[in-house]
Amino acid sequence: MGREDISACQGLKARIAQALKEESAGPADDIRLSTLRLIDVAVRDRDVCARGRGEREGCPDADVQRVLQTMVAQREASAREHEEEGRIADAIRERDEIAIIEAFLPQPLSGKALEIAVNQVVEDLGASKLKDLGRCVTALKERYPGQIEAASAGKAVRTALSRTA
User: What is the fold of 111-164?
Assistant: First the structure.
């Protein structure tokens, strides 16, 4: 699987297309190739819908991220069902597909990176009270789309605000 060295500067659709092209050109990993094809079809479907609404560029990366997140959620549910039914091989395949899909999603901020981001937002907004919590979390979600988990961000903002009070 170690081919996720595709440039983070590229748009998400371009990264997916590049990965599919590379996988199709080389010796095929059946699970990876079929998963990339499924991703490509889902993204193209969203592009067609977006163009039908008049968006000339197709769907934005935020929509592609939502498609990928939905695909991950579907496979997690399927994997659980397969495990409950004793179909372990099918559950393993679903989890392999999840890993391939997640490689295209931004990694959530955590630990020191989350703390730095929170401190920056608190400082930029001049937040000092607990009533500023929602505003700070909203700003974090805007600055780091797809990388902020509300629960962990809320805890980190509370901690930062308690230090400033």
Answer: Arc Repressor Mutant, subunit A (1.10.10)
- Residue 28 CA, chain-centre distance (Å), reads 25
Confidence (pTM): 0.68
The percentage of residues in the chain with a pLDDT greater than 70, rounded to a whole number, is 92
Cβ of 113: how many Cβ atoms within 10 Å?
Answer: 13
From the list 124, 116, 125, the residue with the least C-alpha distance to 159 is 116
DSSP state of 28: -
Residue-level length of the chain = 165
Mean pLDDT of the chain: 84
Domain ranges of the chain: 12-102, 111-164
Dig out the tokens for 156 from the structure: 């980190």
Residue with tokens 């609404």: 53
Q: Is the pLDDT of residue 3 over 60?
A: no
Instruction: Evaluate whether 68 touches 105 at the Cβ level (below 8 Å).
Output: yes
pLDDT at 10: 63
